[in-house]
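Below is how a single chain appears once it has passed through the pipeline. First comes the sequence as given, then the structure the pipeline wrote out for it. We keep one example in the README because the format questions we get most often are answered faster by looking than by reading.
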Amino acid sequence: MSPVVSTAQLLLFYVTAWILAGIILSRRRSERIEASPLVIAIKMRKRFESFDKLRGSKVVGLFLDLGILSVFVLMFLFYKMLVERILLLVSGRPAGAAPIVPLIPGLSIDIRTFLYLLPGLGIAVIAHEVMHALAARYSGIDVKYAGFLVFLGLLPAAFVEPDEDELRRAPLRARLRVYSAGVLANVVLWLLLLAAMKPLVANGYYMYIVNIAPNSFAQEYGLKRGVLVKAIYINNSGPLDITRFEEAMIKLRNENGGTIANITLIIVFQLINNTNVTVVKKAAPPNIQGKERLRYDRIGIYFTAVPKSLVDIGLSANAAYTLFVIILFTELINIGLAAINAAPLFITDGARVVQDTLARILRDEQRATILTNMISLLTLLLVIPNIKI
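Resulting structure:
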């Protein structure tokens, strides 16, 4: 029985209600709340005076200088990635997956994936903005407000508002430190998570079965979703871990014309409780064709990898999987947020770095603004073909 309301319909209803709420709130003036049909922001008089004690520290200054370097390095890598993929698209060669995926729950990503992304997204945006505040206070620039906003009721964000007059009067190096500090925060978090991943996966992975296809051989022989598999045997060959199992299946397909429909496989899944589940994937009868034949071309399991270390410390299969996915997504979100903010795209940190740098070089703020807008437009034109729709 299909649901009465689809995910798309529910999402449309939710976004419509949010827009109406934004319109209503935008008509009521408030110092604490700023609203528009798309965004509702809550402002707090958070000045971050505690960061003043860092002022004068050469170590902190050098650390913030790394942020400036990070922006230019990521800017270069961002352009390199976009141009290389566009050249592949133009040449007709396989270009791989689009590197930029907008986070639109229910459209570009499913709701379940979005919920896994939320913790990492929250950590990334808060760290990004707090580092902006640190750089501002370190440079003697007042912070007027801090706060949170939500775009269309779906995407959370944080913000910090330095005193624009003080920021404009500050030396170029101080301004660049403030602009690039958020990128630096996300790069540092990415590096920390990347380092944490190494010991986490050092002992290898278990296979975590996230789903079983209906009417599949896996379902027929009683394999269940949510179980952890530590070893796999194919036609008495093994034991295989998750990586070697994938390699073995690819090899079998290559040896049989790109399909396993015409061969019989006896696959034994050894679970972590040392019980075995045997699945017999039969060969397709000669008279079976079309969609009916597809059943014989798969085992019927959807699986992912879960680090053994998380399970071995006592976490359940689901908890280990959830924690691993959140850590992985948090890592990806931080480097993605850093790269997007480093790129000169009108309102990004990278655009402000480029504009103030050009103003110093050209000694003309108006020309620097025009040139920065042209660079931002060119960047946008490069980004559009690289977006996954």
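The two ends are 29 Å apart (CA to CA).

See the next section for the split statistics.
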